[in-house]
Prior knowledge:
Shape: globular
Distance between the termini: 73 Å
Oligomer: single chain
Subunit structure: Homotetramer.
GO molecular function: aldehyde dehydrogenase (NAD+) activity
Bound molecules: nicotinamide-adenine-dinucleotide
Structural class: alpha/beta
Radius of gyration: 25 Å
Organism: Pristionchus entomophagus
InterPro entries: Ald_DH/histidinol_DH, Ald_DH_C, Ald_DH_CS_GLU, Ald_DH_N, Aldehyde_DH_dom, ALDH7A1-like
Active site: 302
Amino acid sequence: SGLSESSIRMLSRGASLLSSATSASSSLPLSLRMASxxxxxxxxxxxLRELGLKxxxxxxxxxxxxxxxxxxxxxxxxxxxxxxxxxxxxxxDYERAISAAKAAQSMWADVPAPRRGExxxxxxxxxxxxxxxxxxxxxxEMGKIAPEGVGEVQEYVDICDFxxxxxxxxxxxxxxxxxxxxxxxxxxNPLGVVGVISAFNFPCAVYGWNNALALIxxxxxxxxxxxxxxxxxxxxxxxxxxxxxxxxxPTGLCxxxxxxxxxxxxxxxxxxxxxxxxTGSTEIGRIVGQQVQxxxxxxxxxxxGNNAIIVADDADLDMVVPATVFAAVGTAGQRCTTTRRxxxxxxxxxxxxxxxxxxxxxxxxxxxxxxxPNTIIGPLHNVQGVMKYKATIAEALVAGGKVEYGGxxxxxxxxxxxxxxTIITGLKHDAEVIHRETFAPILYVLKYTTLDEAIAINNExxxxxxxxxxxQRIDNVFKWMGPKGSDCGIVNVNIPxxxxxxxxxxxxxxxxxxxxxSGSDSWKQYVRRSTCTINFSKHLPLAQGIKFE
Length: 549
Ligand code: NAD
């Protein structure tokens, strides 16, 4: 595309300033004109003030709010108008924040884990009290529909509950020692500071998964959110600040630095950051992963996906159709777990394709402003996304693909980054365009003959996040789950690829990065294991029977 996210932001900010300058209010002083062009000034968006947001917000929190970097506007993808402004952080601001986080962690590590869990429980309650407001901010800033925005906050609430229980139950083992009068056990200690770099498409839940587990295990956090979703990060950090203050805990424990890749780089290269939890594209994850590994830090990578649903010859199509539509067009195709490939048995291919096309057509009238109750598909997050959507469809056509439905940008009077969800057939399963993750609602439908062939197609892409098989046959299910089945981190049966629950470990293999977050034993990512051998005898039997005398 040639345009960086920040230059697009500046362009649309410029356009909006221009339109306000030529409006009837042009006799007003510039500062007032700027403020009145922001959505936060409109009564409709009063919930932003309830979250403590203002026309201009400091994007750095190190125990207090101050920032010295460039001022950017966060835009509403439904019309590309600025919501409010943010003073971003610089590398110098980052230095203050990391020092504050490190200092707070030293105190926090001494707090008993169940007490840490109590603080996380309070964070969950605080989020509950702002569930709708925060969910609507996620919608407004990211572009996902309101139930998805609220659902993201609910995920954060749920992981707080999960982590609260875990704070009383996470434990190590006692092993049998070979030596008399010896005890062999393991203890889990905090890592120190966990740096969280997050993506635009889950501006709340991803931080929540990291925040709750890292806190109960005794770590501090430093968060660098995506440059285009800073307001969600600021609002969340303000809620956490309230809880920490009320409990006399140093608030730098959950530090925040809004900013661009320069801040991300400072964090990635910093030895004081013991774990870098990175969620984003495989392209950037590859750089971050190698840099952190280069300094022998720990890294948790949650990168791109290229997820498939396989429809077996015995699949219940009444389940397949809604599942596919939900997972392929939900969040306008901007989930890491979005279904991008539909691999259908040849005996069901025509019927599935026809039914999915009909379902897509029904939703056309419900593409619009994510905060409107009737909307089921919102806009793409930014102009860049629309350009990538167009380029990908053009490439698919050149490769011999056929657009069965969609393939068009929607021009609405209010502007916005709207596109029609798209179904493409006629491509080879290994076409280059299919093997790439395009972050837009484009679904490739493919045909297969044997289940082994379908599994091979599922596994042949570089990414390995989520996968689903629709079947009624038990032998298919166990093959799919087993060593010759799906090679993804998420292996579903009769449910879509999207919509994971917090109770399981979330993440994927291969170029998805191998990280695991959220439930199961993902908490182990945030601790270091100390294997302790305690000699409580009066003798010193050495290993291998060696006598050193
Ligand atoms: P992105 O890679 O462009 O950016 C992610 C974050 O990295 C942002 O905060 C960005 O500012 C930061 N960053 C950019 N350059 C950096 C650098 N050199 N060093 C350090 N940080 C840097 O991703 P995006 O466009 O925001 O998000 C979409 C991608 O995220 C998709 O590929 C999607 O599949 C993936 N994703 C994965 C998961 C998962 O759990 N596997 C979840 C959500 C999103």
